[in-house]
Design goal:
223 residues, alpha/beta, 7-stranded mixed sheet, two-stranded antiparallel ribbon
């Protein structure tokens, strides 16, 4: 743990079709402890997969060379991001100078496509998790998976768990607990259907079909 008065340097990648909650969950956790750079090619608003836009605060070429956390969200734009040569080059350039290379949801597929998860355990959204093997990663079930300086979170809402886990690593458990309490993060979902192991088989199949139709999963698998 380091001096709490020194802000963490956190770079959070934006791209068209990212999932807002993948990013906003950990951003909210980190905010009081960090200088956060929202990164994209330009400073024009970037639209999420629900149509809500976020305004970047720095372009890719103005990102600090050394970050405490390099972060990639998932989203329905994952496949296009994986095929974006400029984004891939940016991640390859930034990763060696980052203390932690991280993602939530299908953002781990983007890290994988950039060659940054080869030889690491990693997780993703349950629909996409097994695809990580095509990039040399070991698909690992978990809300948060830490392997050396790679930290990956599961689907969407796991971003808050991911943020708290990483904050505890960097600022200590007590600080992370204070943020958890300040956020009143005390989940009590109305249904026990938040994982494929718990949901009814018919619900699982409907969600798989919905996501397969909504996202180019086959393209992602082909890498």
């Amino acid at each position: 743990m380091e001096n709490i008065g020194t802000p963490l340097e956190v770079g959070m990648l934006l791209y068209p079709g990212f999932t807002m909650l993948d990013l906003v969950g950990p951003l909210t956790v980190f905010a009081q402890h960090a200088k956060i750079y929202l990164l994209w090619k330009t400073l024009d608003p970037v639209f999420s997969d629900t149509g809500i836009a976020m305004v970047p605060t720095a372009t890719l070429d103005r990102c600090p060379a050394k970050l405490d956390i390099l972060f990639v969200p998932g989203g329905f734009g994952t496949a296009d991001a994986m095929n974006d040569a400029q984004l891939m080059e940016f991640l390859k350039r930034q990763a060696p100078g980052a203390r932690y290379v991280t993602s939530v949801c299908s953002g781990s597929l983007i890290l994988g496509a950039a060659g940054l998860l080869n030889g690491y355990k990693a997780t993703s959204h349950w629909v996409a998790r097994d695809l990580l093997a095509s990039f040399g990663a070991t698909p690992t079930k978990g809300r948060v998976v830490m392997d050396r300086n790679r930290a990956t979170g599961g689907g969407v809402t796991a971003g808050i768990d991911f943020g708290l886990t990483l904050l505890a690593e960097l600022r200590g458990v007590e600080e992370a607990q204070m943020i958890q309490l300040a956020m009143e993060y005390d989940p009590a979902p109305p249904f026990d259907a938040g994982s494929p192991e718990k949901a009814a088989p018919a619900i699982v199949e409907r969600v798989k079909t919905m996501i397969d139709l909504a996202t180019p999963a086959a393209q992602v698998a082909g890498g």
